[in-house]
Amino acid sequence: MSRWEIVFRQLQKDLKLYIFILAVFCLYRVAFILYLSKYIGPTTDFHDISLALFYGLRISLKSTGIVVLFSFLFSTLLAVIFKNDKFDKPRTILGYSYIFILTLLFHIRIPYYEVFHAAFNQFLFNIFRDDTVALLVTVIHEYNLPLRFLSIFGITLILCRILRAVLHTRTFTLPYLPHRVGLIAFKLSLITGIAAFMVFTRFGGSLTYANSVHWENAEVSKDPFLNEAILDDIQALYRAYAAHEALKKAASLNISPEQVRKYGTQLTGKTISPANVDEYFRQEAQGARIPKPSHIFLIIGESYAQWPLLPEFSSLNIASGMKSILSKDNAVQVKPFLPTGAGTMAGINGIVTGFPEENLYPNYQPESYISVYATGIAAQMKQLGYRTRFWYAGFSSWQQIETFTRAQGFDEFYSCGDFPYAAGNAWGSEDKYFYEGINTLFNDTQPSFNVLLTSANHPPYTVDIEAEGFSEAIVSAGLSGSAKADKELITKLGHFWYADKYLVKFIADMSQRFPQSLFVVTGDHADRLNITPNPTLFERYAVPFIMYGPGIHKNMFDAQVAGSHLNIGPTLIELIAPQGFVYHSMAKSLTAGDRFGFNLAFWISDNAIGVIGTKTVEALTVIDRQPGTMPNDFAGQIQAVTAMRGLAWWRMTTGGNIAN
């Protein structure tokens, strides 16, 4: 058999593998859309779905080309080089392996989307910085891991057997061409066809880069869910990697001292040349606005979102406790409010350091353990006469939280290892026992500033909520259709109800013991639970900012105020510090009428929320998706955001000194 005959036969086998794997990609895309069809928007029609499937097919040409390229190299070329038509085993092994990987990723992608409302993205890399044991326990409990493994191996086995049968189907022999010219023309056509096919695959169904499809331009649907369905798992993983690398690059910016001064001028509006970047954060308090609290409790609720507090969701009855506090005259809340980032530690980092999130992970930065950041909340509260404590319902080793918070000025740290708790899971104590532990350990008259971080409202949802008094009837009035029978959703809502119940009980207990205490409530992040498949940006990402205590009143903040976790520190200081007290903060106090909040991905104002770096804007409404409007000074606000990030980067990576 000639080499050309071998090439012709082997290429047919590569083509069979290509068509089969491409069909698997399409099969999983259709299955993904069908299984999660509840996330399809109400205005989406068949044309949108067809468009998503077409562009998905195009982008999967690239993903299919990966395995076929290796098949070409290790089967076809080797068969030609050694003039042996028996190099089929590598192709078969590659095909089987790719099918297993795709099946595994498909089974992971579904719960990932249900949590993050996205196919794989850069947040995937945060897993490697989290408590892997607790994550594994959560996955096993929440997603029935043994059954999923059976499904993965069963489907893989079926698809592999079908592939084997396909690869063993008959191939055509090289056409007989008696004329030399015809044979040469055929060979040239074959070579040209291979090259064109490779280009066609590389550009996702196009022969030019200008018309190519890739993950950056594949969002052709008006439906966010379908845009995610367009990306197959290989492309989604590549997007996650590319975004992560971009963030790493942003986190290793080579900012010059001149650029630092430019950022400082943008942030302060003043042309100054300090020796240390901290001077750009220097502010002076305008004078106390409330009686100085005996104790301050800043409570960060795990996944404690803003949307259950809105009137539109009052029939769910899962935030009745906090609503009862908000009804009091000495309570106030700011609704347009964002967490520092998308995860718990991102929120903690922002509150503890006063720095915006930019994927630098302050809790892992060496500088965080060398010096206390001037913008940090604990050290500044100590200057105001408070003993500082951090209380965590989980374990002290998680994300280095104890060593990090102590290094950043907290005098004391307590975790679930410091008090008895009768129930909990891999993430720590249930809220009931966490608050009881604080109540028991908290027994002094010295003024104190306390940060509390809960953990129970988090997968795996293991609290016995029925024993705590929860029944499905509590939330059923607020659910419609199939949601009324969704036991998993009701369990999640029950855990929010549980978190709210014991949060409010703790506030009541401590208010009785220490009547002059100030309570501040927020959430670490919000993007975990919604009752609507396609929530607005506000429903998905906003967290509450609530203050309750002596001196607090409904008109404390301007009606158009908006902010984020970065505003908590300066707001507290401006409420209690004497006039002229020098403090450091990047953000302004909400008492000064700040009307713009932001985090790594989003911005928020009094009437709109949007995605940074895009034109996506939504009005702050939870019912109608009306077009939002950007603030009049939006460009200046984004410049300030860029300046804050640059200055934070300089402080965390260089120590803050500005060379001449």
UniProtKB/TrEMBL annotation:
Residue ranges of the TM segments: 17-37, 57-81, 93-112, 145-163, 184-203
Cite a GO CC annotation. Answer: plasma membrane
**What pathway annotation does it carry?**
Cell wall biogenesis; lipoteichoic acid biosynthesis
Q: What are the alphabetically sorted keywords of the record?
A: Cell membrane, Membrane, Transmembrane, Transmembrane helix
Mainly resides where? membrane
Establish whether keyword tRNA processing is in the entry: no
Per UniProt, subcellular location reads as:
Cell membrane
Q: Which residues form the Sulfatase N-terminal domain?
A: 296-575
Asked if Transmembrane helix is a keyword of the record, the answer is yes
Q: How is the protein disposed in the membrane?
A: Multi-pass membrane protein
Q: Which PANTHER family match?
A: LIPOTEICHOIC ACID SYNTHASE, PHOSPHOGLYCEROL TRANSFERASE I
Q: Tell me the protein's name.
A: Sulfatase
